[in-house]
Amino acid sequence: MKKLLLSTILLLALSLSFTSCRDTKNADSAEEAIENAAEATEGALEETGKAIDEAVDAVDKAAEATEDAIKKAGETVEKKAKE
């Protein structure tokens, strides 16, 4: 009976010593990698937003310039038609 009890305790102690010593480095490095990816993505999204805003401004300016050119061309055509 003693041998059975001692063997059980020994096996329990060995199993606990192996399972309680997990490698937490992998969990920490995975968490850190996720955070780094999130930060990089956030920065890229901000830059993309700025680029889109600049593109919209450029398109607005081009549209205004085109409108002015069309008005001037129309005025020129009207002047030539009156002559």
Explain briefly what this protein structure is.
This protein is mainly α and 83 residues long. It has helices at residues 2-19, 25-82.
Features:
2 helices; coiled coil; signal; mainly alpha; 83 residues; single chain
Mind explaining what this structure looks like?
- The chain is an all-alpha fold and 83 residues long.
- It is 92% helix and 0% strand.
- The protein is built from two helices and no strands.
- The chain is rod-shaped, with a radius of gyration of 37 Å.
- The model has no long low-confidence stretch (mean pLDDT 81).
- Keywords: Coiled coil, Signal.
Sheet having the most strands: none
Identify low-pLDDT runs. none
Average pLDDT score: 81
* Strand count: 0
Please state the structural category: mainly alpha
Question: What percent of the residues sit in helical stretches (DSSP H or I)?
Answer: over 70%
State the distance separating the first and last CA atoms: 125 Å
Order of helices and strands: HH
Alpha plus pi helix count? 2
Keywords: Coiled coil, Signal
